[in-house]
Design brief:
This protein is of the alpha+beta class. It has two domains: 3-239, Rossmann fold (3-Layer(aba) Sandwich); 244-366, Beta Barrel (OB fold (Dihydrolipoamide Acetyltransferase, E2P)). The protein is built from eleven helices and 20 strands. It has helices spanning 3-6, 50-58, 100-110, 115-128, 144-156, 174-190, 202-208, 226-231, 236-241, 277-280, 341-345, and strands spanning 10-21, 24-35, 39-43, 65-70, 73-74, 85-88, 162-166, 195-199, 211-216, 219-224, 246-254, 258-263, 266-271, 285-290, 296-298, 307-317, 322-328, 333-338, 352-356, 362-366. Strands 11, 12, 13, 14, 15, 16, 17, 18, 19 and 20 form a ten-stranded antiparallel sheet that branches. It has a six-stranded mixed sheet with strand order 6-7-8-3-9-10, with helices on both faces. Strand 1 and strand 2 form a beta hairpin.
Amino acid sequence: MNAVQNATVTAMKLEGVSKLYGPVVALDNVSFELRKGEFLTMLGPSGSGKTTSLRAIAGFIQPTSGRLSIDGRDMTFVPPQKRNIGMMFQDYALFPHMTVLANVGYPLETRGIKRTEREKRSMEMLEIVGLAHCAQRYPKEMSGGQQQRVALARALVFKPDIVLLDEPMAALDKKLRGQMQIEIMHITRQVGATVVSVTHDQEEALVMSDRIAIFKEGRLEQLGTPHELYLQPRSEFVADFIGEANLLRGDVRSTGEGVFVEGNGWMASLPKSDPRYATLSKVQKACVVLRPERICLAPAGPLSPNSAEGVIEDKIYLGVEYRLVVRMSDGGKVNLRSRDVASVAAMSAGDRICMTWTVDDIVVIGA
């Protein structure tokens, strides 16, 4: 089956899954589908419900209510060992007394696969993760990144229905995390694995995922591709959690020409032809989401629609661009990034500037 066909096949489905611990609601009516061959990341702050969801999928906990199915079969109360799920733990959980080859082959051994076939399949998987030359080493003789690839090979070797990754980069330093994000993404796609990963690292989720499920206080806040979540957040929480965003909260004023969201020293406008007009014209307050890289600099002048004015508070040189922190009249701050290095280099802290954007650059969320 090719990737296009896989995109329409459901590998797993959660329907109204909730988990209560006494009065504490760890999961609140969570529903979503996972597609065959998809890499889905559950992202959110501590206590948001992402790890509880992962444990429910693995079978380590049973939902208080709701249903979980894998390949169309109800798995809600099926024990973990009968779910055909591979899992890579945060600490890798490699057996220190076993060689790398034996570690990778362990899931096959528990399934009654004979030694010759077991070693053949384990070596094939070690070839895929680039560690065939380390087959007879022990985990203590491997680097952190190598141990991670061994753990991934072990999770993939028996061709599970789903592979679960629990904070897969947590034990690695920043530079190695960046390298391993790409490696894990390539390895899982090479073998056609269906993956659910848990992380609190936004960059990790954006780099590795086909789709991201953002959790907040036990609820699924939004599910979508990295592109959709970044450009079309449905709530202030999602806008603020994915990437860097300026959240400008102001009053809504509707006219025959369009709708205006205004604050002290800034104004955003949408024409009446904009599909968002109908919704926003019915509210009194709204939040304008403005990404730092979408802001342009202009000479200071009278305030006009889709512009703001303020005073440069900080100017930070980042090589290919400058980051400016601008304080507006109401005391709020706006972060912007500009690659017009020559122009910004001539500016100084304390200079008054005007910032502009287009209608397409903003997301407006009604209060």
